[in-house]
Amino acid sequence: MSSIVDISLSPTVNSIKPSRSVAIADQALALIQAGVPIIKLSTGEPDFDTPAEIAEAGIKAIREGQTRYTQNPGTLELREAICRKLKGENGITYTSDQILVSNGAKQSIVQATIAVCSPGDENSLDFFRGFSREKALRNGGSVVTVRIHPVSVSCSRNRRVLVPAPFWVSYPEIARLANAKPVILSTRIEDNFLLDPKVLESKLTEKSRLLVICSPCNPTGSVYPKKLLEEIAQIVSRHPRLLVLSDEIYEHIIYAPAVHTSFASLPGMWERTLTINGFSKCFAMTGWRLGYLAGPKHFVAACGKLQSQFTSCASNIAQKAGVAALGLGHAGGEPVATMVKAFKERRDFLARSFGELEGVKISEPQGAFYLFLDVSFYYGTEAEDFGRIEDSESFCRYLLDKAQVAAVPGSAFGDDKGFRISYASSLTSLQAAFESIKKALLLLKRPAQV
């Protein structure tokens, strides 16, 4: 006996695109499993093992039976360690109830975006009417007074999330998940892919709710100088409803003379900044799934409510490992410094090598472990047994087919002129990948030459 089943899905889910970086990594893995010698430069994950001290802390937690639930926001031990880290390294002061530990920084970003961007209703009006025109927020040991602006229903619907491009693939989709509208802010390779404050100001409206800043940046490796962040902060301060989500997950992977600045440390920005960080990238702990949000208590508490219904606490074992990671020393101590030294050597090789190729534009990364290359010069070219290169998607398919190198097309990051490669691979692999790409580019000809 058969029955009719409604297989329709939520319009919100239907509006979300799957992660292109994950899809390409899966495609490359399938080819590798089939015996094709693919060089994977598509994955944003360090190729180093988790430092031994961190791993041992996790093993010890298991052996000592620390395998049960923790408090929803995370163990007090870890949250206090995060507070010490943020004060000592970033110059921002928080208390333990202003920290929310999650299952990876991505969860922190999703929860923060939903908490501040989802469509409002009459309940949101009641929430704001419950406050006086001014409210005291506690910034660590000091009290900051901010003005509360009641929000109308029409203004709270279709809130906008401003995202500089090239962007991490998930930012716009997370905005859509929160029923917000992503607004893409273009940057230029000539400006090192840094946001022009004038572009930001031109895109702001009363519906603008969240500005996303990722520094060091995935996918470009750009690092925002303090002076530029201060210019952006001045603009933000003139828009009462605008908050800033500062994604600082790559903060320790940075190359001198670049210096990392936390947006919340700038004057007047603590009370409107949601700082995202974690352990995956800098401590080679991607599989441990451990990240955190730091911000004003009322925002963090709202995210905590979401987490209590989504996943509850992060892994107890991972949290013990996180405490050990923060105990390695300033900026991760020697283990992280060793990784950064290797990343810099790889960065230097790739920037020098690709910089010598005809038609390839680069902006030398100042942080993270990515290189975003402008190869639009090759669009319109053709190769035998492949066809025409039309865009970044076809370019990356060509690399996979002819160079056996897996990379991510720029279209996934909001900039179709180029593609991203990750140099979280051995220098030997990167050298082989470069030679393969170089040979593949030499095969490309203009239609009249084919």
Automatic annotation (TrEMBL):
The keyword Transferase applies. Residues 37-122, 153-429 form the Aminotransferase class I/classII large domain. InterPro entries: Aminotransferase_I/II_large (IPR004839), AspAT/PAT-like (IPR050596), NHTrfase_class1_PyrdxlP-BS (IPR004838), PyrdxlP-dep_Trfase (IPR015424), PyrdxlP-dep_Trfase_major (IPR015421), PyrdxlP-dep_Trfase_small (IPR015422). Its cofactor is pyridoxal 5'-phosphate. One of its GO terms (molecular function) is glutamate-prephenate aminotransferase activity. One of its GO terms (biological process) is aromatic amino acid family biosynthetic process, prephenate pathway. It comes from the Eukaryota. Keywords: Aminotransferase, Pyridoxal phosphate, Transferase. Pathway: Amino-acid biosynthesis; L-phenylalanine biosynthesis; L-arogenate from prephenate (L-Glu route): step 1/1; Amino-acid biosynthesis; L-phenylalanine biosynthesis; L-arogenate from prephenate (L-Asp route): step 1/1. PANTHER family: ASPARTATE AMINOTRANSFERASE (PTHR46383). Belongs to the class-I pyridoxal-phosphate-dependent aminotransferase family. This is Bifunctional aspartate aminotransferase and glutamate/aspartate-prephenate aminotransferase.
